[in-house]
Each structure stands twice: as structure tokens, then as C-alpha cells.
Amino acid sequence: MSQNSIVSLPPAYPSPGMAVLPVTADPNATVQTDAPCRKCGYNLRGLMYGGRCPECGSPVGLSTIGDLLRYSDPNWLLMLVRGISFILWGILVALIVGLVGGVLFRTQAAQHWVQIVASLLGLYGAWLLTEPDPSGLGEAQYAIARKLVRVALMVGLGGSVLQAMGATPGVPREIGFGLGIVAIGAAAFGVVGEFAKFVYLGKLAQRIPHDQLAQRARVLCWGYGLTMGASVLIGGIVGLLLIGRPAARTSPVFMGIACAVAIVGLAYLVFAVMTFFFYIRMRRTLLEQVELARQVWGQATARAADQRTPATTGLAARQSSDPLRPGR
Ligand SMILES: [Zn+2]
After folding, report:
1. What pLDDT, in 10s, does the model give residues 90-125?
2. Residue 90 alpha carbon to ligand 1 centre in Å
3. Which of 177, 178, 206, 296 is 20 to 30 A from 217, alpha carbon to alpha carbon?
């Protein structure tokens, strides 16, 4: 998509408040390559740079200057920001339950249900965050990761529900065991979604472009993904062992597993906290991009309007002057 660029793009990440719409080619020249409209995806090939999209009225020039986020539809960018807000709330709830859940809730089932609420917040947030760019830009780089996030998170949530059902008191041991095994598989698939989310966010950061954020996304992809995966697996196995026989808590095998859970869980919490701050930073940076995009769109819209004004006023002047002539 970057071959559509007709100007050299600013190389560094600009500070907020410095949005500048690059001076594009002659407004009367026509777009020679396929260029999807930034707002509706309409192919602008053959239209004038100074014109507007026939489908949605967006300035054509804006859609021909590369795939940077600051030229994206500000409403879409704002949706990504809102998505991260929900994800942050989800992580916060999950962290609180993970740290003091044992004190707050008496039963394992109650903890599971609160975790599901956290998962729902995270799922809705991830859904907003993985809304495709309306122009279709970026899809070549991350369409698979973006879609995988959605599928995996849904499967992972289903797994959490099953796990909570399996751990509910009164459920026969065999059924609880079966539900637990299915839940572990589903949760493992949910972990794949977390990997995919960081791959997607890393590629999104490159569209800012913000190398530091992209780098941090790569680190968390492995750190958070692996420790979360290990926690899910070991936690699931412990849950299975305990179903229907709470006495197993004191066996040496269980004590050994409990130690492993503690170590992996601690590593997972460290990465979860890092992830939390990563999202805060990503959210702040995207919010800056919303502001930049609003300014750029404002400038581009004004420029497209200016180019239209002389012709319109000229026509209006002729129409209004004609009836005056006979009167003179
Ligand atoms: Zn359009």
C-alpha cells in the first residue's frame, strides 16, 4: 500500500500537536494506482487528488499518502482507544482476583465467575481493538492475527465458563472432570489469542510509527503468552485433581504442583503488570494519533473545500450576474 505514497512520509514519530498534512501532488492530477478511501474503502483510482471520495465525501488526497495511523479515520482510531480501555479494566479485575481472590471469595467457583466478568470486559475491548481499518489498510500485515484474536478469545471465554461450571459445588465428579479437560483445551486456545493480540499490536505500532512500542509488544508476546499458557495448563490440572476430593490438597504431589503454580503464577503476574502498563502507553499513544488524525482531516477537508470553492463561486457569480445584465 505504501507504493501509493506520492510524498516522502515524515520518518520520526512526531510530538502531539504537530500534525501536518503533507503537500501532495497537483490537485488536478489523477490518482494512477489503486488507493482505497481512508473512510469507506472505495477505490479512488482515476479521481483527482484535490477532489472528494464519491462514496463518503472524504478528501482524496488524504487517502494517497501511505498507511500511517495519523491519516486514518479518527473515529476508527477512537474505537481502538476505547477497546484498550475495556482491556485495561479486564486486566485490573483479573489481577485483583489473582492476588486477593482467595481472601475475597470463599469458593473456587466464585473466583471463576469473577474471572469470567474480567474475560468479558477483555473480550469486548479486544473486539473493538481488532475492528479493521475501514480503508482495509494494514490487513496485508495483520489480518490473520486480527481475526485469530477474535476467534481465540471467544473459545477461551467458553472454556472459562465450562471451568466455572465444573468447579461449582454439587456437580458430579465425572462431569466436572470432563468439563475441566474441555476447559483446559479451550483456555489454551485462548492463550493463542493473546499471542495474536501482541502480534497485531506490534504491527499497529509500526503504523504510528513507534519502534519502542513495537519492540515491547514482541517481548510481551512471548513473556506474557508463555507464562499465561503455563498458568492455564497447570492451574487447569490442579483444578482437575481437586474436583470432588478436597482432601488431595495435603498430598505431597499436590504440594509439589502448588510450588510450580506459585513460581509460574508469579512470573505471569509480573508480565501481566508489564502488559497493563504497555496498554496504558499504547492507549495514550493512540489517543495522540486520534488528535493528529483530527487535525490532518480538518486540514485536508478545508483544502478540498478550497479547491472546490472558486469553481462554485464562479458559477454562482455567472448565474447571478446574468439576470442583472438586461436591467442595466
Ligand atoms: Zn470514501
Report:
1. 988 887 887 787 788 777 778 888 888 888 999 999
2. 35
3. 296
110 CA distance to ligand 1 centroid (A)? 49
pLDDT digits (tens, 9 = 90+) for 118-135: 889 999 999 999 999 999
Q: Is the peptide bond before 209 cis (omega within 30 degrees of 0)?
A: yes
**What stretches of 161-208 adopt beta strand conformation (E)?**
none
Task: Output phi, psi for 48, to 5 deg.
Answer: -80, 140
Residue ranges near ligand 1 (ion) with Cβ within 5 Å = 37, 39-40, 42, 53, 55-56, 58
Decide if 34 contacts 46 (C-beta within 8 A). no
Instruction: Tell me the CA–centroid distance for residue 10 and ligand 1, in Å.
Output: 24
CA–centroid distance, 29 to ligand 1, in Å, is: 18
8 A C-beta contact, residue 204 and residue 142: yes
Cell numbers linked to 261: 503454580
CA atoms within 13 A on the CB side of 186: 18
